Predict the 3D structure of the following.
Amino acid sequence: MKIVIIGNNVAGTFTAQNIRLLNEAAEIEIFTQEKYPYYTRVRLPELISEKVIIDDLIVFNEEWYKNKQIKLNLNKTVRRINPKTKTLELEGTDSLISYDKLVLALGSTPNIPPIKNAVKFRDEHKGLFTLRSIDDCLEIKDFIRKEKAKNAIVIGGGLLGLELANQINNSGLDTTVVEFFPRLLPRQLDMECGAMLREEIENKGIKVVLDAATEEILGNGSVTGITLKGGEVIDADIILIQAGIRPTINLAKDANLDTNKGIVVNAYLETSEKDIFAVGDCIEYNNQIWGIIPACMEQSKIVAASVLGLKKVEYLGTIPKNTLKIMGLDLTSIGMIDPSKDTLEQAPGGWDILKKADKKNCCYQKLVLKDNKLKGAILFGDTKAISYVNNKMEQDVDKNELRKLLELYIYKCQNCGKEYDEAMMEILFKDLPENFKCPNCNGPKKDFKQKE
Ligand SMILES: Cc1cc2nc3c(=O)[nH]c(=O)nc-3n(C[C@H](O)[C@H](O)[C@H](O)COP(=O)(O)OP(=O)(O)OC[C@H]3O[C@@H](n4cnc5c(N)ncnc54)[C@H](O)[C@@H]3O)c2cc1C
């Protein structure tokens, strides 16, 4: 059986590895348009600031593929899939590649929001960039050096935008992050933690502009800045857009496979076409796309089994988990972190939030429960609860255990018995002003004692 995989990043490479683990005989061949074997995208921003070199990013070198008897074809772009004849066409050659089973691990590309002139400046390489690959990094680095760029704008205050802004700032450029939503990391944080993070980012010398819709990229020749809705102009010699991803669906769409936001798959990661499977950033399952490595890893096990006809495990989706990788900032966000009005309306009742906001020490911990099951968490500044949270997601938890974990206490007024439950309050007991009075009996703060 000949299995062909298009794409050799996390999803493609781990699918190949998992197939090989299950079957020693299958012929496995990978095609990728990139010129490097599997490398991690996670540390790409550090390539710009020269904290790492290309070799540091390579996860598996070509030797690894040879040892696993996986044929890796670098620099080969697939132009068309012909499901009827089970063949592929490559750019620059007429010869056809045949397959018995085909896995699409096509990944995603950076999303460019509808900003006037953005695509033009990006396509003309005139100072507007997105970041996805080693080659993008090399191009950005080269532009900064050649143009002696001094001011950078990063459009997008999500995880990748902030990590990129940090490394651009480390490279000595005056850096501004422009975010459409009213907080940083809009998908991972609530307003309160977003405000704490903003302060920390600004302490690093990065400017932050929130609630800001970029309307136009300015420039004559190369970029000179942006205009925000409302007319404000921000100057820049280089603009980087990190505003989400778009699954790569063109090949699948042209071959008449079901596509929507992504390539539509079922729980066995089968596409609408027999013997064609899809995995990783390019898929859409249950109306959802992921764009994170843990999802690719999980899916690559399931798709490997499916390809070999061993349909044992169904994909149930992956709980989103994100960690911000900026030195000195510990921040992890997992699952449901802000049961919004919508969620409460869809699934009312049973939601509980335990929260510790220690602004003085820049720590924020929030655990979200539904019917006593742990549904999500934000851990900022103090992430020692992380392994507990990882292990207990979607499981029943004991609120008292959680209080201990977060070091949250209940203080009781010795006069009237009124309790101050830190987990439910905006301010920790220690941070209450000295003239705080018991809301029930007006007794002084000193009459409150910590409950055992
Ligand atoms: C800067 C950056 C930092 C990130 N940090 C994190 C992080 O900290 N944690 C996390 O979980 N995720 C992170 N991600 C996301 C993570 O890298 C992706 O989820 C992951 O790379 C997806 O893997 P994939 O194999 O599905 O697709 P991709 O990595 O997009 O790879 C797709 C592959 O398909 C190939 N391809 C596409 N079309 C064709 C064609 N027509 N012919 C031939 N080959 C083709 C490409 O060459 C490529 O090899 C980060 C991403 C970036 C860009």
The chain is about 25% helix and 30% strand. The domain at 410-450 is CATH 2.20.28.10 (Rubrerythrin, domain 2).
